[in-house]
Description:
Layout: E1 2-8, E2 26-27, E3 30-31, H1 32-43, E4 48-53, H2 55-67, E5 75-78, H3 83-91, E6 98-104, H4 112-125, E7 127-133, E8 139-142, E9 145-148, E10 155-157, E11 161-164, H5 165-171, H6 183-188, E12 195-198, H7 209-219
Parallel strand pairs: 1-4, 1-6, 4-5, 7-12
Antiparallel strand pairs: 2-3, 6-11, 7-10, 7-11, 8-9
Helix pairs in contact: 1-4
Amino acid sequence: MTRYALIVAGGQGLRMGGDLPKQFLLLGDKPVLMHTLEAFCRYDATMRLVLVLPREQQMYWADLCRTHAFEVPHTVVDGGETRFQSVKNGLGVIDGPGVVGVHDGVRPFVSEEVIGRCYELALTQKAVVPVVDIFDTIRCVDGEQSATVDRSLYKIVQTPQVFDVDLLKRAYSQDYTPFFTDDASVVEALGVSVVLVPGNRENIKLTTPFDLKVGNALMS
């Protein structure tokens, strides 16, 4: 079965407080997005990587690849106005059968073990999502009232979320709704259950300046 990975990088970096999209910010000696692509290449050098990127950012990305002599093979596809449309665009260049993972471009610290765990289980279970436990106390807020809830009932969802190619294509043939917050929610709308597997806590999403500081600390 062919392995595919859709790396979705459509963020504008507004929460980073700068004009440069967060996926292009330097992490160590090269942009965040390069570290992300390399993580999947390390797991499987034959994996077919598809980078979903806004068209207006693609020339800049090509310049970065030349500057950093970045040679990880990948196909670039136009991003859409929403993440849903971006994933749908990426699926358009994938020919099954196989398994496909959808991963946030600004999650460069996903471990090879987690990638492997998700892809291997997806061969039989069809829909696999990595998660980690919540260690903080959490409260449910309803208007002016709030109450502590049992944190053992909740998980933090990560990527890559990995699916059978045909299943994910069928899921993304549905009309978009605001309830589609990730790929698992799109698949679940078909009545298909997802399987949860342990993620790795370092697999953070670099969204704020603080996240980038944590990322550089992890790099060192």
